[in-house]
Design goal:
Layout: E1 4-7, E2 10-13, E3 18-24, E4 33-39, E5 46-51, E6 58-60, E7 68-73, E8 78-83, E9 92-100, E10 105-108, E11 112-117
Parallel strand pairs: 2-11
Antiparallel strand pairs: 1-3, 3-8, 4-5, 4-9, 5-6, 7-8, 9-10, 9-11
Length: 118
């Protein structure tokens, strides 16, 4: 069982920045595929960003490309989402997902609320 916990959400104004953190348990964090997703009210959960196990490759949804940066620190079992130039349409609950290749299971955190006012 992998525990995933997000933090760092909050209420900000348009144009501001936030950094989300995600901590995942386990001694093999460096083998986990990590990603960020979000769900706005009345909408389905959508992909935001993902990062490879070594951190060498990252992937982004078109809507956040150039504004968001995903990173990870395998020594600390953490992944981050730096969000710049935030827009009201970025308002959502942000979830972190850990995929454990050894089991094929996905583990989700409880989410952290990000609200961007105009």
């Amino acid at each position: 069982q992998v525990q995933v916990v997000e933090s760092g959400g909050g209420l900000v104004q348009g144009g501001d920045s936030l950094r989300l953190s995600c901590a995942a348990s386990g001694r093999t964090f460096s083998s986990y595929d990590m990603g960020w997703y979000r769900q706005a009210p009345g909408k389905e959960r959508e992909f935001v960003a993902a990062i490879s196990r070594s951190g060498g490759n990252s992937y982004y949804a078109d809507s956040v490309k150039g504004r968001f940066t995903v990173s990870r620190d395998n020594a600390k079992n953490k992944v981050y989402l730096q969000m710049n130039s935030l827009k009201p349409e970025d308002t959502a609950i942000y979830y972190c997902k850990a995929r454990v290749p050894a089991t094929g299971y996905d583990y989700w955190g409880q989410g952290t609320q990000v609200t961007v006012s105009s």
